[in-house]
C-alpha cells in the first residue's frame, strides 16, 4: 500500500469522523415535538371543532368534579358475582366534566348535530378534557360514560360529561388518582378540579396547590402537567411497628443460603475450571462487578453506576473471556457482516428520522453530515482494501464501513439527546441497553458450547429485547406526536427482590436466568458421558439449580440484624439442598453399566431369567409342603428340584439383579430430559390449583414461573442420576424420590400448617393436595421408568408388571386413589386453601 493511498484513506476516515462530530455539535436539546396527525381517524368534533373554529369571544371554561365513595349494593348489581371479593373494599368513582362555552360557539352546534356519543366519546373526553385514572386498584367493571348533556342560559352553553368507575382495593391499600392533561391541540389549558371524598382522605397531593381545602373536599387548578392524589379510607389506620426480637431467622436463612449457593457454585465449576488463568480472571472481574452493582442498587446518588457496570463493563468482560476460551476464530462470513450492517442501518435510519422530525439537527446539516460520513467511510474502506484485488470483497467492505458510519452518527445523536435531558425516541434506551446486554448471553452460549452459533446470537438478541421490555411504545404511533410535558407518567411496576422493576433490575434478573440456563447447558454437555453421575462438580451443579428454583424471595421483609433490605428466603431452598444431597451423596454399590442398548437388552433378559428362577423357588417352597403331605411328590423329587434351582441361580452372575438400576445404555442427559418431560406433564394439571405464573411483563413472568418446573426438576434428578439414587428398582427409587420431594414441598407450608388461625380441615386439604401432587408425579415417573427400561431392551412391560395380578396393581392403585382424593379436596377447597397454596408456590410471596 503506497503512502499516498494511506494518506487518502486516513483523510477520508478523519472526514467521516469530522462529519459525525459536526452533526453532534450542531444538535440541540429536544424540548418540544412537531405536532403530527393522530393515529386515529379524527371525529367531526375534532375536525370542525377545536382544531379549526375561530376563537370564541369568551374563553371556554373546564371544570372537573370527582366524587369518591364506597360502592353500594345497587352500584355493584351489574358486576359479576365472582369478581367481588368480600374481603376487599369496593369503591365508586364518579367523574363529571363541565365544559362551558359561548352559546354561539360552533362547538355547541357540532355537539348537537354531530355528537361523538357513543363511538368516540372515550377518545374525545380523554384528549379534549383530560383522562382520570385510578391506579393501584383492580377493575370491577368497564368504565361507563353517559351521553353529554347540554344546557344553555344567559348566552352560555354548558356541556356535561359523566363517567363512572368501579374499583376494588385491599383493606390497607392506598389508591391513587391521576389527572392527566388534555393532549389535543387547542384544548382548554386550565382546569378547575374538585375532589369530593366523604369516606376517603386525601393524604398526599403531588403537583397540586389547593385553592380550597376542607374535610372531604379539595379544590385546585390544574395546568399543562399531570396531578396526582393519594387516598386513604377514613377507617384505615396502620398500627405502630412492634418491637422486634434481637434475633431473627430471616437474615440467618438469607446468609446461610447465600453461603451454601456460593460454595456449591464454586464446586460446580470444578477444579479444572479454576486452574485456568482466564477463568480466574473472569471470576475476579465478575466479583468486582457484582460488588459494585450491589452498592449501585442501594445508592440513589449514583444512578449511572449500575447501568455502566451492567451494560458496559460486564459485556466487555464476557466477550473478552469468550474470545480467549472458544477455540478458533468466529465463522462469520461477509454475508453475515452485510446482514448485521443492514439491520443496524435500519435502526439507525429510524433514529435519524426521529432527529429530523423533532428538529434535533437542522435538516440540511443532518442530510449533508449523514451523506458525508457514509461516503467518506466507504471511500476510506476502498482505499485501505484496494490491495486485496477482489472487487466484490472491497465493495462489501465499503458497504459495511458506510453502515457503521451511519450507525455511529445515530448513536452519537442519541447520546447527545440523552445527555441533554430532553425528549428522545420512545423505548430507545431499552433498545440500546438490550443490544449491549445481549453480548453477555452471546458470549455465555459460545463458552458453554465451545463454538459460535448464529442461532444462539439471534435467540440472545431477541431474548434480551424482550427481557428489557422492548418494544412497548414503538407500536403506539401516538407517542411520537405527544408533547414532552404532556406525556403521562409511566405506572410503577411492582418491585422484585426489593428493588423497582427498572432496566437495572431487569438486567440483574436476566443474569440470574442466564446463569441458570448456562448451568443447564453445562449439564447437557457433561451429561453425554455416563461418568458424569459420579462427578462432584456435576452433582454440585444440580444442587445449585434446585436451590435457585426453590428460592422464594419476599419484598416486604426487612432485617432487624443486618441494616440492608435483604430478601427473606423460605426454608424450602435449604430443604431442597439437603433432600437432593441425601439422594445423591454417599457410597453406592457398583453397578455394571451397559455400554450399548444391545448389552442392556442382554442384562435385562438375564435379570428376567433370574427373577423367574426366584419366583419358581418361592412357588416350590409354597406348594411343596402341601404336595409332600398329600404324597404327590417324594422328598427325593423335592430335593432334586430345589438343587436344580439353586444351581441355576448360582450359575447366573449376581449383577444381573442390578440391571433395572442401570442407565439402560442411555446418556445421563437423555435420561434426565425424559424424566423432566414426564414429570412436567404429570404436574401441569395442578397448575390449575396453584395458578399460572403472573407478571406485568416478561421479566416478572419468567421469575414467577419457577414453581412450575421446581417439582419436575426433582424428576430431572431422578433420570440424570438414576444409577446413583437409593434403591435397586424404578418404583423403589421413585419412593425415595417422593420422600425427598415431599419434605421439600411441605416445608413451604409449615408456617401455615402450624398457624392456629387456620382450621384443621383447611390444613388437611392442603396436605391432600401437596401429597397427591408429589405422589402422582413420583409414582407415575417410577412406573414410566419401569416401562422405559423394558422398552429400550425390546421386552414387553407385562414381564415385570402383570396387569392380572392384584399385587402388581397395588402401587398404581394407590396413586390413582391419592389423585382422586386430591381432586375431591381441590373441588371443595375454599378461599383459605387457595390463599395458602398460592402463597406457598408464588415467587412474589412466601410463608413468613
In short:
By secondary structure, the protein is of the alpha+beta class.
What key phrases describe this protein's structure?
848 residues; alpha+beta; 5 domains; 4-stranded antiparallel sheet; 28 helices; 54% helix; disordered C terminus
How is the topology of this model organized?
Blueprint: H1 3-26, H2 44-50, E1 61-70, E2 89-102, H3 106-113, H4 121-129, E3 132-135, E4 138-145, E5 149-153, E6 156-169, E7 176-179, E8 191-196, E9 200-206, E10 210-214, E11 217-222, E12 227-233, H5 249-269, H6 271-275, H7 277-297, H8 305-325, H9 334-357, H10 363-385, H11 391-420, H12 428-437, H13 439-449, H14 454-467, H15 503-526, H16 536-549, H17 572-584, H18 597-630, H19 635-651, H20 668-683, H21 687-690, H22 698-704, H23 706-720, H24 730-747, H25 750-753, H26 760-793, H27 810-828, H28 831-841
Parallel strand pairs: 1-8
Antiparallel strand pairs: 1-2, 2-6, 3-7, 4-6, 5-6, 7-12, 8-11, 9-12, 10-11
Helix pairs in contact: 1-10, 1-11, 2-3, 5-16, 7-8, 8-12, 8-13, 8-15, 9-11, 10-11, 12-14, 13-14, 13-15, 15-16, 16-17, 16-23, 17-24, 18-19, 20-23, 20-26, 23-24, 24-26, 26-27, 26-28
Structure description:
This protein is α+β, with helices and mostly antiparallel strands. Helices cover 54% and strands 11% of the residues. Strands 1, 2, 4, 5, 6, 8, 10 and 11 form an eight-stranded mixed β-sheet that branches. The chain has a four-stranded antiparallel β-sheet with strand order 3-7-12-9, with no helix packed on it. Helix 10 runs antiparallel to helix 11. The chain starts with a helix and ends in a 7-residue tail after the last helix. The C terminus is likely disordered. Keywords: Membrane, Signal, Transmembrane, Transmembrane helix.
Amino acid at each position: 500500500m503506497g503512502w499516498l493511498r494511506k494518506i487518502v484513506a486516513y483523510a477520508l476516515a478523519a472526514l467521516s469522523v469530522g462529519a459525525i462530530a459536526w452533526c453532534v455539535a450542531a444538535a440541540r436539546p429536544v424540548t418540544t415535538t412537531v405536532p403530527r396527525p393522530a393515529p386515529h381517524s379524527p371525529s367531526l368534533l375534532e375536525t370542525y371543532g377545536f382544531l379549526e373554529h375561530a376563537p370564541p369571544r369568551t374563553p371556554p371554561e373546564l371544570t372537573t368534579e370527582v366524587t369518591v365513595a364506597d360502592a353500594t349494593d345497587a352500584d355493584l348489581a351489574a358486576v359479576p358475582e365472582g369478581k367481588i371479593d368480600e374481603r376487599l373494599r369496593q369503591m365508586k368513582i364518579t367523574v363529571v366534566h363541565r365544559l362551558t362555552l359561548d352559546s354561539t360557539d360552533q362547538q355547541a352546534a357540532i355537539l348537537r348535530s354531530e355528537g361523538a356519543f357513543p363511538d368516540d366519546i372515550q377518545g374525545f373526553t380523554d384528549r379534549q378534557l383530560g383522562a382520570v385514572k385510578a391506579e393501584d386498584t383492580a377493575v370491577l367493571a368497564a368504565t361507563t360514560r353517559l351521553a353529554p348533556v347540554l344546557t344553555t342560559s344567559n348566552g352560555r352553553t354548558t356541556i356535561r360529561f359523566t363517567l363512572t368507575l368501579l374499583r376494588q382495593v385491599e383493606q390497607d391499600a392506598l389508591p391513587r388518582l391521576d389527572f392527566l392533561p388534555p393532549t389535543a391541540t387547542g384544548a382548554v389549558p386550565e382546569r378547575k378540579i374538585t375532589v369530593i371524598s366523604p369516606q376517603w382522605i386525601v393524604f398526599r397531593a403531588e403537583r397540586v396547590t389547593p385553592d380550597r381545602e376542607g374535610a372531604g373536599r379539595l379544590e385546585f387548578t390544574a395546568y399543562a402537567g399531570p396531578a396526582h392524589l393519594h387516598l386513604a379510607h377514613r377507617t384505615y389506620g396502620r398500627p405502630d411497628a412492634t418491637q422486634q426480637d434481637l434475633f431473627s431467622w430471616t437474615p440467618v436463612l438469607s446468609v446461610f443460603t447465600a453461603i451454601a449457593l456460593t460454595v456449591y457454585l464454586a464446586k460446580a465449576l470444578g477444579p479444572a475450571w479454576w486452574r485456568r488463568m482466564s477463568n480466574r480472571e473472569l471470576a475476579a472481574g465478575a466479583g468486582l462487578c457484582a460488588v459494585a452493582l450491589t452498592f449501585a442498587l442501594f445508592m440513589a446518588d449514583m444512578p449511572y453506576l449500575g447501568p455502566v457496570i451492567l451494560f458496559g463493563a460486564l459485556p466487555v468482560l464476557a466477550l473478552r473471556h469468550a474470545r480467549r476460551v472458544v477455540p478458533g476464530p468466529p465463522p462469520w462470513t461477509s454475508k453475515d457482516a452485510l446482514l448485521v450492517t443492514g439491520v443496524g442501518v435500519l435502526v439507525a435510519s429510524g433514529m435519524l428520522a426521529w432527529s429530523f422530525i423533532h428538529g434535533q439537527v437542522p435538516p440540511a446539516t443532518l442530510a449533508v453530515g449523514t451523506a458525508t460520513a457514509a461516503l467518506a467511510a466507504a471511500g476510506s474502506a476502498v482505499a485501505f482494501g484496494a490491495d486485496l484485488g477482489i472487487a466484490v470483497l472491497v465493495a462489501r467492505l465499503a458497504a459495511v464501513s458506510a453502515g457503521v458510519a451511519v450507525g455511529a452518527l445515530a448513536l452519537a445523536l442519541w447520546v447527545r439527546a440523552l445527555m441533554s435531558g430532553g425528549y428522545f425516541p420512545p423505548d430507545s434506551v431499552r433498545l440500546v441497553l438490550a443490544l449491549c446486554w445481549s453480548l453477555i448471553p452471546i458470549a455465555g452460549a459460545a463458552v458453554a458450547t465451545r463454538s459460535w452459533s448464529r442461532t444462539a446470537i439471534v435467540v440472545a438478541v431477541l431474548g434480551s429485547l424482550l427481557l428489557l421490555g422492548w418494544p412497548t411504545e414503538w407500536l403506539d404511533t401516538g407517542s411520537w406526536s405527544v408533547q414532552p410535558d404532556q406525556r403521562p407518567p409511566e405506572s410503577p411496576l411492582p418491585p422484585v427482590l426489593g428493588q423497582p422493576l427498572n432496566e437495572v433490575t431487569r438486567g440483574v434478573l436476566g443474569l440470574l436466568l442466564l446463569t441458570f440456563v448456562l448451568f443447564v447447558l453445562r449439564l447437557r454437555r457433561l451429561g453425554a458421558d455416563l461418568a458424569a453421575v459420579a462427578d462432584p462438580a456435576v452433582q454440585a451443579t444440580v444442587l445449585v439449580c434446585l436451590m435457585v428454583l426453590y428460592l422464594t424471595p419476599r419484598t416486604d421483609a426487612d432485617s432487624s440484624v443486618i441494616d440492608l433490605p435483604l430478601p427473606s428466603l423460605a426454608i424450602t431452598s435449604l430443604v431442597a439442598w439437603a433432600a437432593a444431597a441425601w439422594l445423591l451423596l454417599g457410597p453406592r454399590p457398583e453397578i455394571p453399566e451397559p455400554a450399548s442398548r444391545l448389552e442392556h437388552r442382554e442384562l435385562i433378559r438375564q435379570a428376567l431369567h433370574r427373577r423367574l428362577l426366584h419366583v419358581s423357588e418361592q412357588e416350590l417352597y409354597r406348594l411343596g409342603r402341601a404336595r409332600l403331605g398329600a404324597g404327590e411328590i417324594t422328598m427325593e423329587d423335592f430335593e432334586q428340584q430345589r438343587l436344580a434351582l439353586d444351581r441355576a441361580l448360582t450359575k447366573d452372575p449376581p449383577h444381573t439383579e442390578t440391571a433395572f438400576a442401570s442407565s439402560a445404555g442411555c446418556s445421563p442427559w437423555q435420561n434426565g430430559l425424559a424424566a423432566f418431560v414426564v414429570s412436567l406433564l404429570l404436574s401441569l394439571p395442578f397448575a390449575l390449583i396453584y395458578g399460572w405464573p403472573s407478571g406485568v411483563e416478561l421479566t416478572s413472568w419468567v421469575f414467577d414461573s419457577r414453581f412450575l418446573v421446581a417439582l419436575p426438576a426433582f424428576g430431572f434428578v431422578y433420570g440424570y442420576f438414576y444409577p446413583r439414587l437409593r434403591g435397586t428398582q424404578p418404583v423403589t427409587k421413585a419412593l425415595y424420590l417422593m420422600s425427598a420431594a415431599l419434605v421439600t414441598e411441605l416445608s413451604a407450608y409449615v408456617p401455615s400448617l402450624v398457624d392456629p388461625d387456620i382450621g384443621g380441615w383447611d390444613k388437611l386439604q392442603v396436605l391432600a393436595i401437596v401429597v397427591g401432587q408429589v405422589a402422582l408425579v413420583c409414582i407415575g415417573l417410577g412406573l414410566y421408568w419401569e416401562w422405559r427400561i423394558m422398552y429400550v431392551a425390546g421386552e414387553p412391560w407385562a414381564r415385570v408388571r402383570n396387569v392380572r395380578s392384584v399385587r402388581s396393581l397395588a402401587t398404581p392403585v394407590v396413586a390413582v386413589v391419592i389423585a382422586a382424593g386430591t381432586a375431591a379436596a381441590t373441588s371443595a377447597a375454599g378461599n383459605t386453601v387457595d390463599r395458602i397454596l398460592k402463597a406457598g408456590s408464588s415467587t412474589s410471596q412466601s410463608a413468613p
